[in-house]
């Protein structure tokens, strides 16, 4: 027991205090590399905010990809309970990503102009992890491979994701395995192309929602997918409003039309039948 008024020594409570030759917290997390990865190119105070916000977002996206890939595999194997947990975690990850915009929005247009030129042509539009998330979710677009052609291994990875089924493809295949009649044109479609809503898929999901007790797992899967897309849409919307708040309608650093381009992305629907069916219930 420590004497009143003297500083508490964690070692008295059993804490390990010596790590010579042993793995510490910093060792395990490779914090030396992580915390050395912020290298502002200007003297602007807010460039550190800009870098940290985008680096942490990429780390969250790495985890989202980890969860989405595992969820897709679990659905394909009819292991829905693990898939539910993974999809729930993915939605919560995007909740975290949405909160990150709140921090970035503390940067004013005047703040951004102090270091924008240092960014050169770099842009969030070029995030290959974000592109991978889009492909996994089903928003396939071969044109979006081009910004990554200069990095062969990344380009090959994205091409592979383009050629594979998406989360929604696997959910639709599961409907077929569960006894619902799904058009062969959907089940055997070219998965490198964007998904187009189909009447047979909509009819199957409508039946799931009208008879939830008989199709509870499919109903829960549908709601997990909607939950993910809900947070994903919010992330897109927050991206747009943050860009508008900071640069208005200037062109983006990567050459896109900036907020105008991002607003077009708001119209993309990943799981159309799951949203359309609500008008039929």
Supply database-style keywords:
Methane Monooxygenase Hydroxylase, Chain G, domain 1; single chain; globular; mainly alpha; 281 residues
Q: What is the element layout, followed by pairings?
A:
Elements (H helix, E strand, L loop, with lengths): L24 H5 L1 H5 L11 H30 L3 H25 L4 H5 L14 H10 L14 H12 L3 H11 L6 H4 L11 H12 L5 H32 L11 H7 L6 H5 L5
Helix pairs in contact: 3-4, 3-6, 3-8, 4-11, 6-7, 8-11, 11-12
Radius of gyration: 23 Å
CATH topology: Methane Monooxygenase Hydroxylase, Chain G, domain 1
Number of helical regions = 13
Decide which structural class fits the backbone.
mainly alpha
**SSE string, helices as H and strands as E:** HHHHHHHHHHHHH
Rounded average pLDDT? 90
- The proportion of residues in beta strands is under 5%
CATH architecture: Up-down Bundle
Overall 3D shape: globular
What is the first-to-last residue Cα distance? 66 Å
Specify the helix fraction band.
55-70%
What kind of sheet is the major sheet?
A: none
């Amino acid at each position: 027991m420590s004497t009143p008024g003297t500083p508490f020594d964690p070692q008295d409570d059993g804490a390990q205090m010596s790590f010579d030759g042993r793995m510490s917290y910093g060792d395990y997390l490779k914090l030396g590399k992580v915390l050395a990865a912020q290298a502002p190119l200007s003297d602007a105070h807010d460039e550190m905010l800009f870098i940290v916000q985008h680096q942490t977002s990429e780390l969250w996206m790495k985890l989202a990809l980890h969860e989405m890939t595992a969820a897709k595999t679990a659905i394909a194997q009819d292991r829905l309970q693990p898939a539910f947990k993974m999809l729930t975690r993915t939605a919560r990850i995007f909740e975290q990503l949405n909160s990150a915009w709140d921090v970035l929005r503390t940067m004013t247009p005047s703040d951004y102009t102090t270091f924008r030129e240092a960014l050169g042509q770099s842009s969030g539009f070029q995030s290959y992890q974000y592109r991978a998330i889009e492909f996994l979710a089903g928003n396939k677009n071969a044109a979006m491979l081009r910004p990554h052609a200069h990095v062969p291994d990344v380009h090959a990875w994205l091409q592979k994701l383009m050629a594979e089924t998406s989360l929604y493809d696997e959910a639709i295949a599961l409907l077929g395995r569960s006894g619902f009649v799904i058009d062969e044109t959907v089940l055997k479609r070219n998965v490198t192309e964007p998904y187009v809503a189909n009447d047979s898929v909509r009819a199957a999901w409508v039946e799931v929602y009208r008879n939830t007790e008989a199709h509870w797992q499919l109903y829960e899967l549908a709601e997990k997918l909607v939950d993910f897309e809900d947070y994903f849409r919010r992330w897109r919307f927050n991206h747009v409003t943050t860009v508008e708040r900071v640069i208005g309608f200037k062109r983006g650093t990567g050459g896109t039309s900036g907020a105008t381009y991002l607003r077009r992305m708001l119209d993309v629907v990943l799981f159309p039948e799951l949203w359309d069916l609500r008008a039929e219930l």
